[in-house]
Amino acid sequence: MPLDPAMQNAMLAAVPGLRGFALALSRRADRADDLVQETLLRAIDKIESFTPGTNMAAWLTTILRNHFCNESRKERREVSDREGHFTAALTSQPAQESRLRFAEFHAALAALAPDQRKALLLVGAAGLSYDQAAAICRCPAGTIKSRANRGRARLAELLCIDGAADLGPDNATQAALCGGNLHWMA
Question: Could you tell me the fold of the domain covering 1-75?
Fold first, then answer.
Protein backbone atom coordinates (compact mmCIF):
# COMPACT_ATOMS: atom_id res chain seq x y z
CA MET A 1 0.00 0.00 0.00
CA PRO A 2 1.51 3.39 -0.97
CA LEU A 3 2.28 5.70 1.91
CA ASP A 4 -0.12 8.61 2.34
CA PRO A 5 1.72 12.00 2.00
CA ALA A 6 0.37 13.16 5.38
CA MET A 7 1.68 10.00 7.07
CA GLN A 8 4.98 10.37 5.26
CA ASN A 9 5.31 13.96 6.52
CA ALA A 10 4.40 12.88 10.05
CA MET A 11 7.06 10.15 9.92
CA LEU A 12 9.70 12.56 8.63
CA ALA A 13 8.83 15.11 11.32
CA ALA A 14 9.39 12.45 13.99
CA VAL A 15 12.89 11.48 12.77
CA PRO A 16 14.90 14.03 14.85
CA GLY A 17 13.16 12.96 18.06
CA LEU A 18 13.59 9.30 17.15
CA ARG A 19 17.29 9.85 16.51
CA GLY A 20 17.75 11.59 19.85
CA PHE A 21 15.97 8.77 21.66
CA ALA A 22 17.94 6.12 19.76
CA LEU A 23 21.22 7.92 20.51
CA ALA A 24 20.37 8.05 24.19
CA LEU A 25 19.53 4.34 24.22
CA SER A 26 22.44 3.06 22.14
CA ARG A 27 25.08 5.70 22.98
CA ARG A 28 26.52 5.32 19.47
CA ALA A 29 25.62 7.52 16.52
CA ASP A 30 25.98 4.75 13.94
CA ARG A 31 23.80 2.40 16.00
CA ALA A 32 21.23 5.17 16.53
CA ASP A 33 21.00 5.75 12.78
CA ASP A 34 20.49 2.01 12.24
CA LEU A 35 17.75 1.92 14.87
CA VAL A 36 15.92 4.85 13.28
CA GLN A 37 16.22 3.33 9.81
CA GLU A 38 14.95 -0.05 11.00
CA THR A 39 12.11 1.66 12.86
CA LEU A 40 11.00 3.50 9.72
CA LEU A 41 11.20 0.33 7.63
CA ARG A 42 9.13 -1.60 10.15
CA ALA A 43 6.61 1.24 10.39
CA ILE A 44 6.20 1.41 6.62
CA ASP A 45 5.84 -2.36 6.48
CA LYS A 46 3.11 -2.31 9.17
CA ILE A 47 1.53 1.07 8.34
CA GLU A 48 -1.91 -0.54 8.14
CA SER A 49 -1.74 -1.13 11.92
CA PHE A 50 -1.35 2.62 12.56
CA THR A 51 -4.59 4.30 13.60
CA PRO A 52 -4.97 7.60 11.70
CA GLY A 53 -5.51 10.54 14.01
CA THR A 54 -3.28 9.13 16.74
CA ASN A 55 0.26 10.26 17.53
CA MET A 56 2.71 9.07 14.87
CA ALA A 57 5.79 10.02 16.96
CA ALA A 58 4.60 7.94 19.91
CA TRP A 59 3.86 4.97 17.64
CA LEU A 60 7.30 5.21 16.04
CA THR A 61 8.99 5.61 19.44
CA THR A 62 7.29 2.44 20.65
CA ILE A 63 8.51 0.55 17.58
CA LEU A 64 12.05 1.87 18.13
CA ARG A 65 12.03 0.97 21.84
CA ASN A 66 10.70 -2.54 21.17
CA HIS A 67 13.27 -3.12 18.43
CA PHE A 68 16.07 -1.88 20.70
CA CYS A 69 14.92 -4.20 23.52
CA ASN A 70 14.78 -7.16 21.15
CA GLU A 71 18.26 -6.41 19.83
CA SER A 72 19.59 -6.03 23.37
CA ARG A 73 18.22 -9.47 24.27
CA LYS A 74 19.97 -10.95 21.25
CA GLU A 75 23.26 -9.25 22.17
CA ARG A 76 23.14 -10.75 25.66
CA ARG A 77 23.44 -14.19 24.10
CA GLU A 78 26.54 -13.18 22.15
CA VAL A 79 30.10 -13.64 23.37
CA SER A 80 31.24 -10.60 25.31
CA ASP A 81 34.61 -8.96 25.69
CA ARG A 82 34.89 -9.53 29.46
CA GLU A 83 38.44 -8.18 29.88
CA GLY A 84 37.72 -5.21 27.63
CA HIS A 85 40.77 -5.77 25.40
CA PHE A 86 38.92 -5.19 22.15
CA THR A 87 36.88 -2.32 23.52
CA ALA A 88 39.96 -0.58 24.88
CA ALA A 89 41.66 -0.88 21.50
CA LEU A 90 38.69 0.70 19.72
CA THR A 91 38.16 3.66 22.02
CA SER A 92 40.11 6.86 22.18
CA GLN A 93 40.45 9.28 25.01
CA PRO A 94 38.37 12.45 24.67
CA ALA A 95 40.42 15.33 23.35
CA GLN A 96 38.03 18.17 24.11
CA GLU A 97 36.20 19.47 27.15
CA SER A 98 32.82 18.92 25.50
CA ARG A 99 33.56 15.24 25.05
CA LEU A 100 34.47 14.96 28.70
CA ARG A 101 31.25 16.68 29.71
CA PHE A 102 29.27 14.44 27.37
CA ALA A 103 30.92 11.36 28.88
CA GLU A 104 30.11 12.66 32.38
CA PHE A 105 26.51 13.19 31.31
CA HIS A 106 26.24 9.65 29.92
CA ALA A 107 27.70 8.21 33.12
CA ALA A 108 25.25 10.23 35.22
CA LEU A 109 22.36 9.19 32.97
CA ALA A 110 23.39 5.55 33.30
CA ALA A 111 23.45 5.93 37.11
CA LEU A 112 19.78 6.90 37.20
CA ALA A 113 17.11 4.39 38.10
CA PRO A 114 15.82 2.75 34.89
CA ASP A 115 12.31 4.19 35.25
CA GLN A 116 13.68 7.71 35.76
CA ARG A 117 16.07 7.37 32.81
CA LYS A 118 13.28 6.12 30.53
CA ALA A 119 11.00 9.00 31.57
CA LEU A 120 13.73 11.57 30.92
CA LEU A 121 14.63 10.07 27.56
CA LEU A 122 11.04 9.98 26.37
CA VAL A 123 10.16 13.48 27.58
CA GLY A 124 13.53 15.17 27.16
CA ALA A 125 15.35 13.44 24.30
CA ALA A 126 12.40 12.27 22.22
CA GLY A 127 10.34 15.39 22.98
CA LEU A 128 7.17 13.51 23.84
CA SER A 129 4.52 14.95 26.12
CA TYR A 130 3.97 13.42 29.54
CA ASP A 131 0.77 11.82 28.26
CA GLN A 132 2.53 10.28 25.26
CA ALA A 133 5.37 8.99 27.44
CA ALA A 134 2.81 7.59 29.88
CA ALA A 135 1.10 5.71 27.06
CA ILE A 136 4.41 4.17 25.99
CA CYS A 137 5.34 3.19 29.55
CA ARG A 138 1.79 2.07 30.32
CA CYS A 139 1.47 4.17 33.49
CA PRO A 140 -0.29 7.40 34.55
CA ALA A 141 1.05 10.75 33.31
CA GLY A 142 1.60 11.82 36.92
CA THR A 143 3.97 8.92 37.37
CA ILE A 144 5.99 10.05 34.34
CA LYS A 145 6.08 13.62 35.69
CA SER A 146 7.32 12.37 39.05
CA ARG A 147 9.94 10.08 37.52
CA ALA A 148 11.19 12.82 35.20
CA ASN A 149 11.37 15.34 38.04
CA ARG A 150 13.27 12.93 40.31
CA GLY A 151 15.54 12.02 37.40
CA ARG A 152 16.31 15.69 36.66
CA ALA A 153 17.08 16.34 40.33
CA ARG A 154 19.35 13.29 40.52
CA LEU A 155 21.14 14.27 37.29
CA ALA A 156 21.75 17.76 38.67
CA GLU A 157 23.13 16.21 41.85
CA LEU A 158 25.39 13.78 39.97
CA LEU A 159 26.67 16.52 37.66
CA CYS A 160 27.12 19.00 40.55
CA ILE A 161 24.75 21.53 38.99
CA ASP A 162 23.64 23.99 41.65
CA GLY A 163 21.96 26.56 39.43
CA ALA A 164 21.59 28.07 35.98
CA ALA A 165 25.07 29.61 36.18
CA ASP A 166 26.55 26.10 36.12
CA LEU A 167 25.02 25.54 32.68
CA GLY A 168 26.89 28.38 30.98
CA PRO A 169 30.27 28.34 29.24
CA ASP A 170 33.14 26.63 31.03
CA ASN A 171 36.05 28.64 32.47
CA ALA A 172 38.23 28.20 29.38
CA THR A 173 35.46 29.49 27.09
CA GLN A 174 34.71 32.39 29.44
CA ALA A 175 38.39 33.36 29.46
CA ALA A 176 38.55 33.24 25.67
CA LEU A 177 35.42 35.36 25.32
CA CYS A 178 36.72 38.15 27.53
CA GLY A 179 40.42 37.94 26.70
CA GLY A 180 41.29 36.64 30.16
CA ASN A 181 39.48 39.46 31.99
CA LEU A 182 36.69 37.79 33.90
CA HIS A 183 35.81 40.89 35.98
CA TRP A 184 32.90 41.81 33.66
CA MET A 185 31.14 38.55 34.51
CA ALA A 186 31.04 39.19 38.27
Answer: Rna Polymerase Sigma Factor; Chain: A (1.10.1740)
d(C-alpha 57, C-alpha 17), whole Å: 8
Instruction: Provide CATH code, domain 96-179.
Output: 1.10.10.10
* Angle ∠(29,31,36) on CA atoms, nearest 5: 95
Provide the percentage of residues in the chain whose pLDDT is more than 70.
76
The reply to whether domains 1-75 and 96-179 share a CATH topology is no
pLDDT higher than 60, residue 176 = no
Q: Helices 130-137 and 56-76: crossing angle, nearest 10°?
A: 40
The mean pLDDT of 97-112, rounded to a whole number, is 83
DSSP per position, 41-60: HHHHHTGGGS-TTS-HHHHH
User: Which residues have CB under 8 Å from 1's CB, separation 6+?
Assistant: 47, 48
Q: Residue 104's pLDDT is what? A: 86
Residues 50, 152: Cα–Cα separation, whole Å:
33
Domain range annotation of the chain: 1-75, 96-179
